[in-house]
Specification:
CATH superfamily: Transmembrane di-heme cytochromes, Chain C
Strand order of the largest sheet: 1-2
CATH architecture: Up-down Bundle
Number of helices: 7
Distance between the termini: 17 Å
Shape: globular
Strand content: under 5%
């Protein structure tokens, strides 16, 4: 494979984390729907859905800590931090591109490199996702998994109803997010370019 006009953007640990996380969230959404709508859906039994949901949840928690340790340990976590001096203009340019420019053939204002991986809109979204929403979903999931062991934490968070509401709200959010994320991943110079890059590590400059 020739790497001319290509850049190694996605290291192996990141690719492993990404696909384990992606598979985990798909399974969590599927089993979550079965648990939530047990009387309407029937692609697996309620008990099987609960068991699979719990074990996949534990795997995703472990995977999140691998992401955390890798990015902070390597210093690569800085790719998530926006440059505050240029953040707003960059975000406006990126939003204009997604909303209009892409449909008339404009060039993407963001050029991905290993040190500048995310555009301004991605940085804003991923900071909220990886530092707030994913941890909150994992914590509430643990609480619902063992309400006796985590009873004190549930009380501090406002009670079981609050914990369950947060978990279900984020469940719907992540179900929608995965669809949007998959669509945005098709916006490379070919429909499959970004998907291939997440397997090989190499992004093609086009």
């Amino acid at each position: 494979m020739s790497h001319e006009n290509m850049e190694y953007v996605h290291p192996l640990p990141v690719r492993i984390w990404h696909w384990v996380n992606a598979a985990g969230f798909v399974l969590l959404v599927l089993t979550g729907f079965q648990i939530r709508f047990a009387e309407s859906l029937g692609y697996m039994s309620f008990d099987s859905a609960v068991t699979l949901h719990n074990w996949v949840g534990i795997t995703v928690i472990f995977d999140y800590f691998l992401w955390f340790l890798y990015y902070f340990g390597s210093g690569k976590i800085r790719i998530y931090y926006p440059d505050l001096a240029t953040f707003i203009p960059r975000m406006i340019r990126q939003a204009r591109y997604y909303g209009y420019g892409i449909f008339i053939g404009d060039e993407n204002p963001h050029h991905m490199t290993a040190e500048n991986k995310f555009n301004a809109m991605q940085q804003k979204a991923y900071i909220m996702l990886m530092f707030v929403m994913v941890p909150l979903q994992l914590i509430t999931g643990l609480c619902l998994w063992d309400m006796t062991q985590y009873g004190d934490l549930i009380a501090k968070m406002g009670g079981l109803k609050v914990v369950d509401t947060i978990h279900v709200f984020l469940f719907y959010f992540f179900a929608i997010f995965m669809v949007v994320h998959a669509y945005l991943a098709t916006l490379g110079h070919t429909v499959s370019a970004h998907f291939v890059a997440m397997f090989t590590g190499w992004e093609e400059h086009h």
